[in-house]
Specification:
mainly alpha; two-stranded antiparallel ribbon
């Protein structure tokens, strides 16, 4: 303190006022450090082990303003280090107390668990020793001396008889200690039945409170792109004048709950498109699929030619004429006729980009669905006697030996 007092007395009015402010800051900080020096945790120790101010503070009056400014920074650094050291000490102490509390708690829990297991083992040992000692019967009549008191040993038959009499006076819910296996199983079965009855009552009460569980319906695949369904959806949207999927589905389910019960909000949301201006409308892909569904079976592979009625009518007329003329209509012949009509009137159907192939399975399905013809089954030929081969046209007209006559008078070439 004498150093700072001497420096202030020797200070002239012409000196720089900034130097005065620096000395005052150093004085206040040194006073603060001196006040904290009495605390053992925050004391500043010099190299010799004594609690004194740092040596840089001494001789401050002989320092230049630049040196004094450096001295102030060093003092502040010492104060910051002291504060950090104090915080670390407090954290270590708190961690030690917490660790000690955890260890104490664990010891108490382990001791409690040990005492509990010990008492449980003692109870089990006493029960086991009592069961090994002999049969026990609940005594209801204490008027006279028992067999054990009179010195007579009780037989198993007497114990069973007295046990039977005791069961007549006891309630059905209380177990009786005995050695009769039949009675033991009977009591166990009644207890199980009682548990089932209680569980059934609980389930009935829960069903009444929360509603009876409904059977899970089987998922159905609905083609919402079909024109009749799509017409109802668009009608509901125009009636409500809104594009909210939730509102549209609520109206559809209220009008026809059986049909639209499986329509969900995410499904209907995918059909709505939003343009750059934020206006909503049905997506182009959905409108295209709905337009194709106007024709019956246009979205199915077996009805690909339903959009070309002229091809179907001409092919059916030509095949019918061939059958009336007595010509056997086979799969390759039908395929050739259909391919000729398609290439002549609608070649885009067989283009590679159409993903349609005129296969034999498709031709057979076309004949069955459109013309209502069935496939002819092969049958055995009529047996011909050996002596009747001469009059037949095989020899007279020179037919090939590979021809065989059927019962209907037609001939087929066999290989």
């Amino acid at each position: 303190m004498g150093i700072f007092r001497e420096a202030l007395e020797n200070l002239q009015p012409s000196d720089d006022i900034g130097l005065v402010e620096i000395w005052l800051d150093v004085f206040l900080e040194a006073a603060t450090l001196a006040a904290k020096a009495f605390n053992g945790n925050t004391a500043l120790h010099c190299g010799n082990g004594s609690s004194e101010l740092p040596p840089l503070v001494c001789g401050l009056s002989t320092q230049t303003p630049q040196e004094a400014e450096l001295t102030i920074g060093v003092c502040r650094t010492y104060a910051e280090q002291n504060r950090k050291q104090t915080e670390k000490t407090r954290i270590r102490m708190a961690y030690g107390h917490a660790k000690q509390a955890i260890c104490t708690t664990n010891d108490a829990l382990m001791k409690r668990k040990y005492e509990r297991d010990k008492k449980r083992f003692q109870r089990f040992r006493k029960k086991y020793q009592a069961e090994q000692a002999g049969p026990t019967v609940i005594e209801l009549n204490n008027s006279g001396p028992s067999n054990a008191e009179s010195g007579h040993a009780m037989s198993h038959a007497d114990a069973a008889e007295r046990q039977k009499r005791a069961q007549e006076f006891l309630p059905a819910s209380l177990p009786v200690t005995h050695h009769d296996e039949n009675a033991r199983h009977a009591w166990g079965s009644s207890s199980t039945a009682h548990c089932r009855e209680v569980k059934q009552k609980y389930l009935e009460k829960k069903a009444i409170k929360h509603g009876a569980p409904q059977p899970r319906p089987q998922a159905l695949r609905m083609n919402w792109q079909s024109w009749p369904y799509w017409l109802k959806i668009t009608t509901a949207q125009e009636k409500l004048m809104t594009w909210s999927p939730t509102v549209i589905i609520k109206l559809l389910q209220r009008n026809d709950p059986d049909l639209f019960s499986g329509l969900q909000v995410p499904t209907l949301s995918r059909w709505i498109a939003v343009d750059e201006d934020g206006r909503r409308s049905w997506s182009a892909a959905m409108l295209h699929c709905a337009h194709l569904s106007k024709c019956s079976g246009a979205t199915m592979r077996s009805k690909t030619l339903s959009k070309y009625p002229l091809i179907v009518s001409d092919a059916v007329a030509q095949l019918t004429a061939l059958r009336v003329a007595g010509i056997v209509v086979q799969g390759p012949l039908v395929m050739a006729i259909l391919k000729a009509h398609i290439l002549h009137k609608a070649p885009e159907v067989l283009a590679p980009s159409s993903m349609f192939k005129l296969s034999s399975s498709w031709v057979h399905r076309f004949v069955q669905d459109v013309m209502n013809w069935s496939s002819r089954k092969g049958m055995l030929s009529r047996p011909v006697p050996e002596g009747l081969e001469g009059p037949f046209p095989r020899k007279s007209d020179g037919f090939s030996p590979g021809l065989r006559g059927n019962s209907d008078g037609n001939y087929a070439l066999t290989f």
